Amino acid sequence: MTSDVGTRRPTIREVARLAGVSHETVARYLRADTRIKEASRERIGAAIAELGYRPNLVARAMRNRRTGRLALLLPAGVAISSLEMLAGATDAAGAAGYVVEVVTLGGPAGVRSERVLELADSGLFEGIVSLTPLPAGLLGAGATRTPVLVAPHYDEHMRGIGALADASCVADLVEQLAEQGHTTFLHVSGDYAHTSARNRRQVYLDTIARLGLRSYAVVDCDWDWRRAWRAVLDLPADCGVTAVVGANDKVAAGAVRGALERGWRVPQDLSVTGWDDNPLGAVMPPSITTVAVDHGRLGRAAVSDLLALLREEAPAADERPITRIIWRESTGPAPR
After folding, report:
1. What residue stretches are annotated with the HTH lacI-type domain (predicted)?
2. CB within 10 Å: which end of the chain, N or C, has fewer?
C-alpha cells in the first residue's frame, strides 16, 4: 500500500479509503468496538500505521465531549510518593476506560491559575483532578467546561499535606512501646517546613504527656540521618532513653547506627521506629519498625471520586486509615 498524503496530517477518511472500509468503521475501531471483523481490524491497523494517523482529540471533544483522557495536576517538584499515587490513579482510570496524563503546575499562583483554566477549557480532558490546592474562587459554578476535582495531598512545593500528613500512628507506636515497658523516649524529627514533620513531633509530645511518660529530648534532624546518628551517640549513659521515635526511616537508620557504634544492642538496649516503609529498612539488620502509607489508594480514590463526579454520583465513602504499622526487629521490650 502507498500513501499520497505527503506531509499533511492524515484524516480518518483517508484511513478508511486505504483500508477499504467506511469511515464509520474506522471510528468504531478507534473506540475499540469488538464487533468489527478481524480482517477489517487488521486492514485498519495497517492503514493507520502506514499513514501515521493520530486521532484529533480536540475535534473529537468538540463533537462528543469524549476524549478518554483525564488530567492529574501536581505541583512542580519531586516526591517518591507521587509515583505510587500516580500508579493507583492510572489503575483506577484504566479500569474505567480512561488514560491519565500528568500535568505539573509551576510558577507564581497567577500563572498556575491560568494554566488550570486553560486545561479545563481546552476540551482535551473529560475531567481533571488536582492533587494540590487551587486558589479559592478559581473554579466557581460554571467557570469551566470540564469538571475539576481537588484532592489536596501536596502543597505548592510538593510536600505532603492532608491525609499524607496524618501522624496518628505515632500515638500507636508510643502506646505500644509503653506497654512493653518503655518510659523515656527520644524523638528525632524531620524538616519542619513539612506539615508531616510538625504533626509527627506534636503527636509524639501529646502522647508522651497523655500517658505520663518522659521525653528526654526532641532533636531537629531535618530528615538527615547523620543528625540522628550524632544525637544517639551524644546521649549521656544515664539518660534513661530506651526508645527512639524517628520521623522517617532515614533518621531511624541513623539512630540505629549511633546505638550500634556506642555498643548498644537494638532492640535489647534501644528500640527504634521510623516512618515511610523505605525498602532498605526492611532488609537492614535489624529491620526497622515503620509506618507504611498507602499512596496508591489515595491515587485510586482521587480518580474514583472524579469519575463519580462525571457520572453525577455521590463519591464512595472510605474511612479506612491509609497508614499501618509494620512491627519489625528494631523494637522490643524495654531493658530491665
Report:
1. 10-64
2. C
